[in-house]
Amino acid sequence: MVKGSVRFRNFILGLLVKRSMSGYDTRRLLRNLGGLLGTPSFGAIYPALHALLEDGLVTVEVVPHPTRPPRKIYTITDAGKQALREWVAQSPPSSTDLRAFIMHLMLTGDSICDRLTAHLRQRQEAVATHHSDLEQAARELGEQPSLGELVAIEYGLAIASAEMAWLEGKLAQLSVEQPDAGCR
Asked: How is the chain split into domains, by residue range?
């Protein structure tokens, strides 16, 4: 996650929709996701929170504590909710950037099924392209690739294959479980 990136700031807004949090709470939540999104430093989280505050997308309440420094609790504003809705409505990047996909997926989870399905299909296309590119790279390694090159390409192909299988299964599941919600 890039310090101060628009994507990261919007993702923090999405976390604040669920509940108000401090910077420490935000970092702990991201860390608890098991590295799925990386674990940003406080040097990335606090500048993002301050930028959101300056833009009027969050408010901050300072909660005193008798034995520790006061906690700053950030809460999303109506303007922040609107900015988040606009960001989530956009398609996620069409690259194979897993973090961008996961961020959009987490925040799109409560959106209409059509949007969620569109995100999953877009990811499916990107991963299929990535898989094809890896197969081409394997062919270009020649007849005697190094063991490291071979293992790296095989790893990438295995990950892409597993993700494609998951995406196919999830799309099929959504079309069965949510047929009236636009999941086809």
From this structure: 6-89, 98-181
How far apart are the C-alpha atoms of 6 and 92, rounded to whole Å? 13
The DSSP line for 96-115 is: --HHHHHHHHHHHTTS-HHH
> Phi, psi at residue 30, to the nearest 5°?
-65, -40
- 71: left (phi > 0), else alpha (psi -120 to 50), else beta? beta
Q: Strand, coil or helix: what is 50?
A: helix
Running DSSP on this structure, what letter comes out for residue 98?
A: H
Q: How does pLDDT run across 37-74, given as a tens digit for each residue? A: 666 777 788 999 999 999 999 999 999 988 988 999 99
Residue 29, both tokens: 């939540």
User: What backbone phi and psi angles, to 5 degrees, belong to 149?
Assistant: -60, -45
Alpha-carbon radius of gyration of the chain: 20
Total-model pTM: 0.67
Instruction: For the domain made up of 6-89, give the CATH fold.
Output: Arc Repressor Mutant, subunit A (1.10.10)
SS3 content of the chain, % helix, strand, coil (to 5): 65, 5, 25
